[in-house]
Amino acid sequence: MRRYSIFAVAREALRYHSGWEKAWASPEPKKRYDVIVVGAGGHGLATAYYLGKVHGITNVAVIEKGWLGGGNTGRNTTIIRSNYLQDPSSAIFEKARSLYEDLSTDLNYNVMFSPRGLLMLAQSEHEMRGYKRTVYANNLQGVETRWIDRHEVKNLVPILNIDGPRYPVLGALYQERGGTARHDAVAWGYARRCSAMGMDIIQNCEVKGVRTEGGKVVGVDTTKGAIDCGKLAIVVAGHSSVLADMAGFRLPIESRALQAWVSEPIKPTIDVVVMANLVHGYMSQSDKGELVIGGGTDGFNNYSQRGSWQHVEETTRALIETFPVISRLKMLRQWGGIVDMTGDRSPILSKTPVEGIYVNCGWGTGGFKAIPGSGYAMAELVAKDYSPLAAEFGLHRFKEGQFIDESVAAGVAH
Amino acid sequence: MLTLTCPYCGVTVEETELYPGGEAHLKRFGPGSTDAEFESYMFARKNPKGVHFERWRHAYGCGKWFLAARDTVTWEVFGTYSAQTPEPPAALVATIKQKRPGWEGWK
């Protein structure tokens, strides 16, 4: 792999950019790999990357039914934060956020991490108490957040209407080092490094079956033929239940549609990420000038990558009340992704009833921010059968009732 | 937008008039059941890519729960029926089998 640098740009500028090599190879699958990762989204590629980087396992294939980064990795609102209430969540999300800080250097790929600051608005007395509690918890966990009052909120976000009418802003939970990153670049950067380590990224290759012998995984059947493996990591978000079904177990997961949309591009208007969880909308401005807006999931199972229209309407209505200035903007485009929801709204990083199969799923509506931490923990789990970061996110928690209840902590009407 | 016919009112309504209630025909396990049975009842869910049976409530209508058979990919609705039904009606199962020959059945 040739490094990207200012010298490379200068060199290529002098020869009509004829010397750039392909960022990753597109090989045909080998007969056998030590580890197969199913799903070349952010989480799958990060898993493969840290398997190679930290644990020295490079005989790895990442199999993807479509194109890499074409699922939820390319369909989210790119928000990065780690202001969670529960200790295990904070640990893994903060690990991810801190890895994002120097991910561009680590990958030699500009992921455009922009720690522009993130506000979670408190718009009711209860939300205010809840967020203050989260600030106390975060400070104990070593996550830097603070409570700011409504005037400071107004200073940070002048376009915000803090006086209501229905939900006046009372203050906000502020994470200064939260922000956004370029979602495609995260997938591409990891893919490039995985490929450079000799891993095979096999796109347009759908897994059709999982082969097991005596309760142990031996390989997968794909549209490009049978491939053997020592270990199998299933990192497929919305399709986790489908893969689990092939392997013969069931997950506590339901697949739902989550939508996002962007406005027409406008001049710089808002330089932080604002989440208004009471009315359930969140907004930031992309580098292109579009306002990137996200809302809630549909309430019913869905694999169609299309959501219900009324969620777009509800969220946009709520945000217009919060940001009156956007009321005349046209919405440019809208899309949906299939998210994997667990009962406690926390992810699953776990061994499974089948020996050698590991799952990393259940990130639900907030997976993008977790990509580096999730990959780091998953790689450790696959390599060593145990990861301290993943320990409490096992499937066992549903049997034991040891939930990591972020559906309450997030304060969002999921 | 998803539209379903309430089997009690007989009217076809948009999803904004309905409240989704998750997987249908769950067998309830309570005190005296094993941990595995209880866990499975509480959390393990069918999450098929294709034919799915689910509960819906006609929230802004008659207020009653009913059941629906629906395709989770195409959103095609195969039929709706009363919630006081322990398993899908045979006629509905036959209709789905005709439309989805590869379907493995409701269990």
TrEMBL record, chain A:
Its cofactor is FAD; FMN. Residues 35-79 form the Rhodanese domain. Signal peptide: none annotated. It is an enzyme of class 1 (oxidoreductase). Pfam families: DAO. GO terms for cellular component: cytoplasm. It catalyses: sarcosine + O2 + H2O = formaldehyde + glycine + H2O2; sarcosine + (6S)-5,6,7,8-tetrahydrofolate + O2 = (6R)-5,10-methylene-5,6,7,8-tetrahydrofolate + glycine + H2O2. InterPro entries: FAD-dep_OxRdtase, FAD/NAD-bd_sf, Rhodanese-like_dom, SoxB. The keyword Transit peptide does not apply. Belongs to the SoxB family. PANTHER family: FAD-DEPENDENT OXIDOREDUCTASE DOMAIN-CONTAINING PROTEIN 1, SARCOSINE DEHYDROGENASE-RELATED. This is Sarcosine oxidase subunit beta.
UniProtKB/TrEMBL annotation, chain B:
Coiled coil: none annotated. InterPro entries: SoxD, SoxD_sf. It holds the Pfam family SoxD. GO terms for molecular function: sarcosine oxidase activity. Transmembrane segments: none annotated. GO terms for biological process: tetrahydrofolate metabolic process. Gene3D superfamilies: Folate-binding superfamily. This is Heterotetrameric sarcosine oxidase delta subunit.
